[in-house]
Amino acid sequence: MRTRVFVTLKPSVFDPQGRTIVAALGSMGYGAVRDVRQGKYFELEVDAETPQAARSLATEVADRLLANPVIESYRVEVDADGTAADPGPRSARTD
Amino acid sequence: MRTRVFVTLKPSVFDPQGRTIVAALGSMGYGAVRDVRQGKYFELEVDAETPQAARSLATEVADRLLANPVIESYRVEVDADGTAADPGPRSARTD
Amino acid sequence: MRFAIIQFPGSNCDHDAYHAAKHVLGQQAQLVWHKESTLGGADVVVLPGGFSYGDYLRTGAIARFSPVMRRVREFADAGGPVIGICNGFQVLLEAGFLEGALLRNRRLKFLCRHVHVRVEQTDTPFSRAASPGQVLRLPIAHGEGSYHAAPETVAALEANRQVVFRYCGPEGAVTEAGNPNGSLAAIAGVCNRRRNVVGLMPHPERACESALGSEDGRVVLESVVTATAATGAA
Amino acid sequence: MIDQAAIDAHGLSAEEYRRLLEILGREPTVTELGVFSVMWSEHCSYKSSRLHLRRFPTDGPRVLQGPGENAGAVDIGDGLAAVFKIESHNHPSFIEPYQGAATGVGGIIRDIFTMGARPIALLDSLRFGALEDDQGRPDPDTVRLVDGVVAGIAGYGNSIGIPTVGGEVAFEPGYAGNPLVNVFCLGVAKADRLAKGVASGAGNPVYYVGARTGRDGIHGATMASAEFDDRSADNRPAVQVGDPFMEKLLLEACLEVMRTDALVGIQDMGAAGLTCSTCEMAGRGGTGIDIDVSRVPQREAGMTPYEIMLSESQERMLLVVRRGREAEVEQVFDKWDLHAVRIGEVTGDGLLRVRDRGRVVAEIPNRELADGAPVYDRPTRCPAYLDEAQRLDASALSPPADLTRTWLDLLAAPVIASKRWVYRQYDHMVRTNTVALPGLGAGVVRIKGTGRALAMSVDGNGRHAWLDPREGGRLAVAEAARNVACAGAEPIGATNCLNFGNPERPDIMWQFVQAVEGIAEGCRALGIPITGGNVSLYNETDGQAIYPTPVLGVVGLLEDAGQVLTRLFPAAGLDVVLLGDPGGALGGSEYLNRVHGLVRGRPAPVDFDRERALQQLVVDAARRGMLCSAHDCAEGGLAVALAECCVESGGVGARVDLPVSAGSSDGFDVVRNLFGESPSRIVASATRDRRAELLDRARALGVPAAVIGGTGGDRVTVSVAGDVVADVALEAAEHAWATGLARHFEPAAGQESAP
Ligand SMILES: Nc1ncnc2c1ncn2[C@@H]1O[C@H](COP(=O)(O)OP(=O)(O)O)[C@@H](O)[C@H]1O
Ligand SMILES: [Mg+2]
């Protein structure tokens, strides 16, 4: 089953990459892009009976390995089930 | 307006990070994770009148800067406009 | 005394640490493969620099799950001296031996050069032989060495005197110019509360011989020799 | 089923296809057609160059392995061998700068450890289009390419833990659509344990180890030999992603396997992947090889035998193991979490037999496939541009009014300015052997366990080679050897990378032949054997060829690592000594290019008797502790070389006085003194008490030598016959030189402190 994990730097953490991108875009004439935050995106192919099982597996994996809680937060999505339960930007791809 | 850009390696392109993560998960007892592909995830805050405008701006930016068209594809999502119209990953610049 | 140098897949400063411990300091040293289940009676454990698991995902993120890390944990819990250099520091942070995290360098580029660091604390096994405020000229070589921690964590580290090394200028003044990677509070190295586990981004093992341009790193490794000689190994 | 279209698509000429039919005695299968096309591509077969490369001197008392193996090797004493080679990754780096450069590094490293050597140093020789327009504004495309290529080299070399200790970077409009990325790697092996890429002993198992095979770079080998045009966009799927972590495991595991004697032969799968490694190993062994591609670990579903044989996926090795020793070898690879897979065996029938689940899909006589490739003696014609380009009438120009400004401007020229921004991205200290940091001259690494060190330098000058290809070849040899000698090391071996345009064009072929001749002359004259190299042809975009660019990599031996010299004046109060003639030529100089926007004239020729004597003198004087520093005069001439001896020195200036050079009527005498370029010149420093001794030795060797001034103060001052002609504060010189390149990449570069 296909699950997706989004890992983003916590808002309190300075994101030099995002900063650099905004600056670059500014000089390219894209001043309308006010802010950019860069994160990581994982597509996991997991063996699981149910979307719920897939979600909890992906969540465990994200928690233990994919994200570093000191600086990052994560969000898990599963193709088959409803929208991502947790708050934060909703992804239109899930329905 | 909040837009999101997902950048992933084209399916044919080798993803050493993903491979290494799968192997690590295997030895951690998560053999149920069959495959992992790692990509980039950007949250863009853009000034735009309409979701459509935001989308086309983000798309242009993804195409010109965020994605490397030679090896990566990208997908753009906009919060406000409900479903992401475009079907799955699209190859940068080449369509 | 006996140094155990942990070899993770992708470690590439393991032999440098071995050379410094064995041939420069004249101590016993052995390389310990990450799948080992014993540290072979080591008095000191070194987590060397390099790119364990290619630095994929996050530096040190995968290495922390290596079997040998359980033994390192026991060793540290028993008060044994453990030092993590560069990638080794990153592993210690990921594994929770030390507090904080390391982010991409401020300029987003890998940076290899000599820098100056000030010894802030001399009551750790890896700074004991130094004098307080002593300035060391050491090489750095990393892309992700920008130290970060929550403000309260940094405050606690300062309060508990856990910041062991700080980037500075040639005269020891802490300045923007002296901070090569944008580390918070110019932090180059920290220790745990018990003070027996130390991690730092600069490479003391690369600065143990005049032929290599600096001998300032010797004091870091010599500290542990004297320290452990004095207290008797953990 | 093999129609003309298929033959054309595989880049085989009618003549070549006829030969193929002869060899097979039948029509080829598609797989066979693919196999022939990659093996007979320029890239693998050297069909246009082979004839001429025979001119190189390839033997000498120290040579342990000449051209023909994965890399060359020379004896460095103590039973050790230095194994080194240079390789190009030009086209891939243009298509995808980061991955192209990264996989280039990965490829040359595999060549070195394939020989049983532990890689200990890398050098990179880089050429890009103009970095600045005439207003000094950066060119965004060049900036992007440089940024990606440098990051790619760093990304791979740093991760695998091999220090990049030197290199060169040049910028010329001609490289805009076709940058040159040449990477040199050096390793050390036990002289009597060199591994070979040979498959011998019928019945011995053939193992595949490393990354799984994907559809990477299929036709990559042919692509790398096919002239660029707008269709090159279609080559994009040919981009391969490097995995330095996998290669680090391979490196350690292979070296561990080689410590046993269970290994018969080993070769990496580079261009033409499995095809090239199988037929070359069997070719060398005079044997056959029989493999089943269905056993090859695959990354993607449904790969055909054709794809598996032609794939150029990175980080893969082919091994032949002694029968009965399989378990031992498999164990070592398991330890490193690599799984060696047995894909076939060595046979006695001289055939490359490829099966798919048992069914034979290709069966080719190996020898003919490996060595039977056509050898072309392509027609040559002296290029039309040459006469005009070589003509230089200085009297038509006016010399600059303010020579100090010109001096600073040259110090800030990207080709001359500090490459700190580049080499600080490279881990140049890992392995704790680097006894001369990059930026100070040749790269120098000590050999632990011996008192010795190896110095190495890669050099070339496309401008010189364009104006005079033969002299360009000679000059490249002389400069690389001189750079090594300036470190105090005796040059003992060379490798070369020949970057040229389309050899089917007689004028390009002429450049190639001339340059090869020049290199051969130079190496013969200096007694430096060529132990290997790499040829990269078809370097052109839309019919626009690059400058002909021969790049030389020279390795030198220092008996005492403690005696290494750098360019820097170490203290005040020293003599500044010029070894060689004070006058230089304007032809092909950076001055002419930067100040007058001209690439014209003839570069000053090398007198190899003089050059040999000069290098002998420095090496010998260094050994006797007579010198405190030594620096070769290259781009920018004597004045720039002098300033380079002061910058980063921690504040040691210098004041020199030059003799008037023979008056020519064009008013450029002083300019020639300061910025003229010519070979066989070194700026050195020495203590006063060794002065007489040094000058005596110079006289004895017939090398002109003069004390032209002294070190000290915080200015650099040049006078001619007593009149000050250029004078600059050390800080100003340092700033111009330190920021000239970096300012285009990081705004704050100016504030960067010296190492
Ligand atoms: N791409 C590079 N990588 C590493 N070091 C480099 C690179 N380019 C130049 N350098 C270093 O900068 C110094 C100056 O280079 P160069 O101008 O080519 O010297 P030279 O004129 O003596 O050949 C040398 O020490 C060289 O090793
Ligand atoms: Mg040069």
Account of the 3D structure:
The complex is a heterotetramer, with 2 copies of chain A (95 residues), 1 copy of chain C (234 residues) and 1 copy of chain D (755 residues). Chain A has 95 residues and is α+β, with helices and mostly antiparallel strands. Helix content of chain A is 29%, strand content 31%. Chain A has a 3-stranded antiparallel beta sheet. In chain C, the strands form 2 sheets. In chain C, strands 2-1-3-4-11-10-9-6-7 form a 9-stranded mixed beta sheet, with helices on both faces. In chain C, strands 5-8 form a two-stranded antiparallel ribbon. The termini of chain C are close together. By secondary structure, chain D is of the alpha+beta class. In chain D, the strands form 5 sheets. In chain D, strands 8-10-7-11-9-12-13 form a 7-stranded mixed beta sheet, sandwiched between helices. In chain D, strands 23-25-22-26-24-27-28 form a 7-stranded mixed beta sheet. In chain D, helix 20 links the parallel strand 17 (490-499) and strand 18 (530-536). Chain D is globular and about 85 Å long. Classes of the chains: A alpha+beta (95), C alpha/beta (234), D alpha+beta (755). The interface between A and B is large, with 38 and 42 residues. Strand 2 of chain A pairs antiparallel with strand 2 (33-46) of chain B. Magnesium ion binds next to loops of chain D.
Offer a concise description of the structure.
The complex is a heterotetramer, with two copies of chain A (95 residues), one copy of chain C (234 residues) and one copy of chain D (755 residues). Chain A is an alpha+beta fold and 95 residues long. Chain A has helices at residues 16-27, 51-66; strands at residues 2-9, 33-46, 72-78.
SSE arrangement of chain A, N to C: EHEHE
Radius of gyration of chain D: 26 Å
Give the averaged pLDDT of chain A, no decimals: 84
Summarize the main sheet of chain D.
7 strands, mixed
Oligomer: heterotetramer
For the residues shown, what is the average pLDDT of chain D?
A: 93
Secondary structure class of chain D reads: alpha+beta
- According to DSSP, the number of beta strands of chain A is 3
C-alpha termini separation of chain A: 15 Å
Count the helices of chain A. How many? 2
Q: In order across it, which strands form the biggest sheet of chain A?
A: 2-1-3
